[in-house]
Amino acid sequence: MMWALLASQTPVGNYTTDCPNGSYFVWDILQACTEDARDVASIALGLFSVICFMFSAFPQCYSSYKNGNMDEALSLWFLLGWLGGDSCNFLGAFLAQQLPLQTYTAVYYVIVDIFMVSLYCYYKVKNRSRPDGTAINVVVMFVMLGAAGSLIQGSRVIYPIGEKPRFNKRSLLAIPQSSANQAFTPKEISGFVIGSFSSVFYLGSRLPQLCRNMKRKSTKGISISLFALMIIGNLTYGLCVLVKVPRQGQTEANYVVHHLPWLVGSLGTMALDIMILIQFAIYKTQSSESELLIPKVPRKSLQ
Length: 303
Description:
mainly alpha
């Protein structure tokens, strides 16, 4: 999902002149300048956030394999919203001409999302005894994938070959460089819009899952580790943005405004994920109480 300001807000240049007091390793790998403790903390938090997002889907895949009820436990719209948010991240990386490491990570997220959606469809077909909406769900999935592909192709028209817009990194979703407190430029607006769409996808994906859990009055089949890792990832991402030192001459308020879509998306999604964790606690307690109310049939003693 997010690279979280792993690259600095300074444009790519010469290490000796642009970042004389920073780490050359970080400059060479991430094109980020770490000249003080806040910069180092921001990059460390961002890397930890990426690791959380990279491994968040694995517990759910294992839980689905073990229980075989992924189509009942998870909402398809939760998975599609997740895919939509990560697709926007990939589009942002593509438009921003990001570093290969960042672009590959964005592609990895999308591939994992597609695998999760495919796994959902597999269990939906396998468990056909339930009310079947598989055909509609599959059509919706391919329509969204086709729309994402069209956006990527269309971006080549917007940014012709040879024109490489320099973005102020939010890594996978970036904002273009501009003077410290100037109004948004057209390219900056495009990055802001993509970030806003990404946040809407991430926020919107949790609502169907919350509703499904309420309707089932159960979280059986859902891996709690999935949402725990998401919460940690979004929290560290939000801290990564807030800890980062603004560009020279840029006020803290202006810096926050420029990163508002991603802050709202990450911290808002974290709040909704916490609500899902609360559902885990509530329904687990209710299940335990129900088991206590069921009278136990005494075993017949052997003669």
